[in-house]
Amino acid sequence: MFSAKDEKQRIIAYEITQGIIKPELKLKISMNNSALERKKIVSSSDPETYRVAVRMSSFGKDGWYYLMTSSNVSRFGMSLMVFLFYYNVG
Asked: What tens digit of pLDDT does each residue of 56-66 get?
């Protein structure tokens, strides 16, 4: 026993393999997206500072700007703290 949906799928698959019907893909793209608009300012006023700050920080989902969240920054920071500790002690 097969369900009506299974029978319908078998009929459609048979018609596609025999060339009776031709499948086609329809795609609708919405161009009303603010992310697709051109930016008025290409870069910040000081791009070098911006690049350094971006490597060490990130934006959270709540819109806040968090510093030192990257795993690479924390690895560097912790090893620097250990180095400075032993440098000061020794």
From this structure: 677 777 777 77
